[in-house]
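Hypothesis: this fold can be encoded by more than one sequence.
Test: take the structure tokens below, design a sequence, compare later.
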């Protein structure tokens, strides 16, 4: 182990250190993610990031299809719980330079990779990343890290409770600025979205409450995909109905389907629920 602090790296030691880090990075490799007629460059910095790229067409096929089917040129897309930005990149390819993608990711390591993926793919003209947590009110709240590895998920704002409703001991707790979507729109920080994806492993209800104004407004989203767990299902569905939205479909994740195939009640398994304005759903029937 090199002892540093009293003497900086220089000369041969500096060159060897740079070579060592360069080899380690090159061994991880570079990826090209193919998406119909589009493709994206990803340079993973952890095995978990590499796994995300390699499993994207298996893990949440419904989310991929939603983006491909619903987004069009000029649209505004909100990716809430963007992680390293794979779905955001897919959305950016479809909304074009006249559209906008807002990617929300509070975990520091994920946010760094998200920003790098925007740069690598030349999408800074249409993607805006937010290093904050969405919730139902503005303020500074504890953000509890379940993992610090790039590409990880499960860290939580407010309470240290994981996606299985179990308490966890945070590796570290950061004080993180939180805001509501309504507040950001009112402040002019973003345009009103046409399509929203929410997947934050447990804080979905608070985020929805923070966009009441948007959901009741004249320019409200035409599609909202939100992760639903058994504990919050009834309250979440009731809230969306009260805002004039109707349930229009369910997308199961790879992990959810594995649980269902093993015999678990589908209503006890987390899934992505698709909501549309009730009048739009009625007109489609």
């Amino acid at each position: 182990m090199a002892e540093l602090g009293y003497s900086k790296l220089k000369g041969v030691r500096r060159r060897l250190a740079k070579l060592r880090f360069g080899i380690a990075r090159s061994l991880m490799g570079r990826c090209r993610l193919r998406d119909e007629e589009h493709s994206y460059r990803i340079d993973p910095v952890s095995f978990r990031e590499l796994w995300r790229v390699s499993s994207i067409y298996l893990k949440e096929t419904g989310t991929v299809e939603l983006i491909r089917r619903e987004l069009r040129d000029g649209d505004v897309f909100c990716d809430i719980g963007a992680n390293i930005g794979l779905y955001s990149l897919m959305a950016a390819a479809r909304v074009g330079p006249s559209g906008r993608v807002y990617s929300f990711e509070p975990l520091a390591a994920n946010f760094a990779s998200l920003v790098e993926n925007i740069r690598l793919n030349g999408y800074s003209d249409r993607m805006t990343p937010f290093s904050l947590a969405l919730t139902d009110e503005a303020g500074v709240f504890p953000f509890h890290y379940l993992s610090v590895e790039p590409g990880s998920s499960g860290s939580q704002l407010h309470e240290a409770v994981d996606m299985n409703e179990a308490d966890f001991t945070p590796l570290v707790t950061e004080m993180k600025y939180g805001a509501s979507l309504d507040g950001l729109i009112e402040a002019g920080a973003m345009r009103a979205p046409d399509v929203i994806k929410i997947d934050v492993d447990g804080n979905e209800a608070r985020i929805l409450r923070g966009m009441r104004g948007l959901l009741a407004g004249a320019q409200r989203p035409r599609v909202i995909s939100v992760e639903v767990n058994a504990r919050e299902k009834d309250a979440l569905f009731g809230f969306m109905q009260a805002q004039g939205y109707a349930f229009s479909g369910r997308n199961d994740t790879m992990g959810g389907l594995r649980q269902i195939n093993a015999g678990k009640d589908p209503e006890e398994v987390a899934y992505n629920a698709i909501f549309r304005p009730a009048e739009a759903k009625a007109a489609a029937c």
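The chain is about 35% helix and 25% strand. The CA atoms of residues 134 and 264 lie 31 Å apart.
Hypothesis status: open.
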